[in-house]
Write a structure and sequence with these properties.
alpha+beta
């Protein structure tokens, strides 16, 4: 091999290697889509008996009557859990007294009282419940003397900041009668 050609050989080899690496890495460039995760929302089962046991034990410790599980409130909770999971945020107009009233009305759930607790990031029901107990406003809802029913839901999100979204909806349907002011 000629001395000049032999000196260029390593240089050509490096160019070929660099070109190969550049082509191989094109699929990993930001925005290419191949390695980016598509957001997937998954409704998760929540142990309703565990939830009822936790909340009713807590209410009993505070001199309040037990709540009954309500599947309509589970559905209302699930829709809200998906709503906040889609946004990866609990900051939404739907999380207001007006928003809850609208959602209960849309579910044909005539009621005298309603409240809800949202949570994000909690890995399990125990953590969500402890979080609600530790928040003044959420705790007030757990100990609301005017509600008689409860529903709960959880939606997971595979991408984003929070991943786990919880909604607990409490209400007093008209079928349970008017609340007695205390």
């Amino acid at each position: 091999m000629h001395a000049k050609a032999a000196a260029l050989y390593p240089f050509r080899y490096c160019l070929v290697l660099l070109a190969f690496l550049a082509l191989a890495s094109c699929g990993a460039l930001p925005g290419s889509g191949e390695l980016e995760d598509e957001t997937v929302l998954t409704n998760q089962n929540v142990d309703k008996n565990q939830m009822l046991s936790m909340i009713n034990s807590y209410r009993k410790q505070n001199g309040l009557p037990a709540l009954k599980h309500d599947t309509t409130l589970d559905d209302v909770s699930q829709k809200m859990a998906r709503h906040i999971a889609e946004r990866d945020s609990m900051d939404t107009w739907a999380h207001s007294a007006f928003g809850l009233s609208q959602r209960l009305s849309k579910a044909s759930y005539a009621n005298y009282a309603g409240a809800e607790n949202l949570g994000a990031g909690y890995a399990d029901l125990n953590a969500a419940f402890r979080g609600w107990q530790g928040s003044e406003g959420h705790n007030k809802n757990l100990l609301n003397p005017y509600v008689t029913r409860v529903g709960i839901a959880r939606t997971n999100r595979n991408t984003g900041k929070w991943r786990n979204f919880w909604v607990l909806t409490l209400a007093r349907p008209k079928a349970d009668g008017r609340p007695v002011l205390q």
